[in-house]
Design a protein that fits this description.
Blueprint (H helix, E strand, L loop, with lengths): L26 H10 L2 H18 L1 H8 L24 H4 L17 H37 L1 H16 L2 H16 L9 H13 L3 H14 L3 H8 L4 H9 L4 H25 L10 H10 L2 H4 L2 H27 L8
């Protein structure tokens, strides 16, 4: 056998593993991962979920309790008619099996039922008014930053005008006027007038700051290459704004939207407490605080003040802490993990 016919030793080829492809997390996935690593964020998120479920399940919970948020009971077996007229008797003033949080003074209505339905009203007003502000602020801010020039100048002056006015004074003065105007419209049916007026007022006067923030973000986004590429392909301005620009500022919008919700909850409670918001007999936490103060019941029956006040504090605090957690989770300067 010649050298050329000598077989070279065979080398065993080991199977190689398939190459791994690195996948990046989306913005929301990264934010959720950071929220899960924060005990404060998890607790606040859990409280917010519990409050929302409490509001959604209000009819079920009240039916289980067997009470009606609008039913009054002024009989002598429930309310005192001698020493302090209207004050609940000791058996009805505090939580019991029949009335889980007692009854309110004056009319003897069930406090738990009114707290549950009041959560619906407060969250409904806060969420709808926040949605109005977010839509207006995002669209107008994106338009100002994208178009620039005269469009930017006009929208920016409108933003400055809205930010210059005293917000609370405007809301206090315009809410009764809007309520009287809505009574002759389809929105003026039943107790929906104060809810619709608060949604429109709080939503219309709450968009300016978000619009300014979105405008600043869009000023840098509009110079990006993918925006120029979309223009070169003949995409319309509306398509670019809604499909390219706004999706890239959703992180900022989400943060400010989360922070607006507790602010609007507090605003609704303050307006109802001052008597220009939700009116009796519609349940509302602010309206219950107003009733406790108007009749001086907080002196003889502090429980009637403590219950809605505690519910309001817990709700606003939970939303604020969750908003802080969302802001930190979406912070682009935070370390990626």
């Amino acid at each position: 056998m010649t050298d050329s016919q000598t077989l070279a030793p065979k080398t065993e080829v080991l199977p190689t593993a398939a190459p791994t492809i690195a996948t990046g997390r989306s913005l929301l996935a990264t934010a959720w991962l950071r929220i899960r690593r924060s005990p404060v964020a998890l607790v606040s998120f859990g409280v917010v979920v519990a409050i929302v479920l409490f509001a959604l399940l209000a009819p079920v919970l009240v039916a289980i309790e067997g009470q009606d948020p609008y039913a009054t009971n002024t009989g002598p077996d429930v309310l005192d008619n001698f020493m302090t007229p209207g004050l609940p008797l000791p058996a009805y003033m505090y939580p019991s099996i029949e009335h889980w949080l007692g009854v309110e003074p004056g009319l003897g209505r069930d406090i738990f039922a009114r707290i549950a339905y009041g959560a619906q009203v407060s969250l409904l007003i806060a969420l709808l008014s926040t949605a109005v502000s977010v839509v207006l602020g995002t669209v107008l801010g994106a338009a100002a930053g994208y178009f620039g020039g005269k469009v930017d100048m006009v929208i920016s002056r409108i933003i400055d005008l809205f930010l210059a006015f005293p917000h609370l004074l405007l809301v206090l003065s315009l809410t009764p006027i809007l309520q009287s105007r809505l009574r002759d419209t389809p929105l003026g049916q039943g107790s929906f007038v104060p809810i619709a007026s608060l949604v429109l007022i709080l939503g219309f006067f709450g968009w300016a700051y978000l619009a300014r923030v979105v405008r600043g973000q869009v000023l840098s986004i509009r110079e990006q290459e993918y925006i120029e590429a979309a223009k070169s392909y003949g995409a319309s301005h509306r398509t670019i704004i809604f499909r390219q620009v706004i999706p890239n500022v959703l992180g900022v919008v989400l943060v400010y939207g989360t922070m607006m919700i507790p602010a609007n909850i507090s605003a609704e409670a303050a307006l109802s407490f001052l008597g220009v918001g939700v009116k009796d007999p519609t349940p509302s936490w602010g309206q219950m605080l107003n009733a406790a103060q108007a009749g001086n019941w907080y002196l003889s029956d502090p429980w009637f003040l403590i219950v809605p006040g505690t519910a309001l504090i817990i709700t606003v605090l939970a939303f604020n802490l969750l908003g802080d957690a969302v802001r930190d989770a979406l912070d682009p300067k935070a370390s990626r993990s």
